[in-house]
Amino acid sequence: MRHVKLDDSTSGITICCESRGPVSIHTHTKFCQSVEFYEDIEYKVPEGLVWIYFPLAKRETIVAGWVRELVSNLNDRRPVVVLSTSLQRGRSFGPYIHPDCRSNYRFQSLGSQLGHHVTGFCYNDMGITASTKFKLTLAHALEETTHCTALEPSFGPIANIPESCAIPDWFYSHASLDGVMRIRMCMDKQKPHLPCIGIVLVYSEREEALGQWRFDREIEEIDPSGSIYLCVGRTKVGPYVKGIVVEKPSEEEDWCEITLAGTISWWFTSECSQVVIEKDTF
């Protein structure tokens, strides 16, 4: 079993997963961003990995966790880690589940102790890809902290799955565009088409990560003061985001203007991305 520590210096959590479930869990701090684990995991699982990053605000803690899984007697239950925080934020680290299928799933509590924040994860190394059944437990603080209140587990909002290509397992992330002060972009320049695989939206007191995020890839930043422009492309596998800029380039490409209002949804897989602004798909 592998233990991952959470403490006052923890600034975020990365869970590497595939469509069948989680593979590896890692934490980050403001002072040190370890990147060696990305290549280590990819060496063992070379295809189909999705990297989901969950940034934590100052003094924000994890207060509860669940595993979402299929109601089945089979070993392949498609487990997904679901977490909630002291700021009433929740995150699911797995594929989006259509409302018609949600009755086939259940949430198994990871031993939440209301009022005692989580101090670590303990799980079988390599998760769903290990030879043993996936196991995950939470460690909690001994002392009670009064600001810890837990959310109930949720599938998240009901959204319209992109229909642009036949991808069975889309991952889903969303956030408000209101109050965004900075946008950080994760550019995977190790791939030939140089995609933007995800973004971090920076607000005055928190951050939200959309799509995939890797600290071992090139990070670019923009400070929008009005509209931003997003460019999309397509490979044989499906759609992807080329980039985001504050001024519309003169090149004749598929650049779409986005005002900083409403909600942005970022659908993604290990290779594809599709962005939805309110009811408009880009």
UniProtKB/TrEMBL annotation:
<protein>
    <submittedName>
        <fullName>Uncharacterized protein</fullName>
    </submittedName>
</protein>
